[in-house]
Amino acid sequence: MHISLDGFVSGPNGEMDWIKVDEEIFDFVGNRISQSDTALYGRVTFQMMEEYWPTAADQPGATKHDIEHSKWYSKVHKVVLSKTLEDKGLTHTTIISNNLPDRIQEIKQQAGSDILLFGSPTATHSLMQLNLIDGFWLFVNPIILGQGIQLFTDIKDKINLKLVSTRPFTCGATELNYIVDR
After folding, report:
1. Phi and psi dihedrals of 124, rounded to 5?
2. Residue 169 falls within a domain, yes or no?
3. Which of 67, 85, 169, 171 could hold 20 in an S-S bridge, CB 3.0 to 4.6 Å?
4. Do residues 95 and 83 make contact, with C-beta atoms less than 8 angstroms apart?
5. CA-to-CA distance for 122 and 35, rounded, in angstroms?
6. SS3 per-residue string spanning 77-142
7. Hey, how many other C-beta atoms are within 10 angstroms of the C-beta on 165?
């Protein structure tokens, strides 16, 4: 998840134009997500993804990143947290609308690799409150927003983390990869 230095994942109106990305980050992220077979989204982020990624590789001028991510997106199992979305015609998609802790634990117990949560601050907040997040893969961007949607909000209990890796990128963003130290 991209985050500002002061802990925001978007501006007050959902703006994300401050996020620094380039081919170096795309290649790094592409390598990591290609090893994952499950993507978790909140409804809003999932609907944004569904509007773009299924056909991104087919568009004139599609970038290497668009082509690679579109192929991955078409085959990855998508899990969507939503109380309103219906499972009409969605392929490789599971919608979780209730009993979140048990349903997430069921998915974690299935064979496969990491479950990666993409964007989705509301879903992230819900999962954090239920202690269902095992790690944080953050890209700290060189900006202080001062306001917006915070990543870490309404935290009831301390969450201890262990740093797994860090990497600076030439665009100024820095990757911080933490696992929850339980």
Report:
1. -60, -45
2. no
3. 171
4. no
5. 25
6. EEEEECCCCCCCCCCCEEEECCCHHHHHHHHHHCCCCCEEECCCHHHHHHHHHCCCCCEEEEEEEC
7. 9
Token digits of residue 105: 């634990």
Q: What is the count of structural domains for the chain? A: 1
The first and second tokens of residue 88, run together, are 């009409």
Phi, psi torsion values for 61, nearest 5 degrees: 80, 15
Which CATH number covers residue 27?
A: 3.40.430.10
pLDDT digits (tens, 9 = 90+) for 37-49: 999 999 999 999 9
Q: What tens digit of pLDDT does each residue of 67-94 get?
A: 999 999 999 999 999 999 987 888 899 9
pLDDT in tens, 147-178: 999 999 888 889 999 999 999 999 999 999 99
- How many residues in the chain? 182
Place of tokens 């929850």: 180
Domain that holds residue 101: 2-86+93-161+176-180
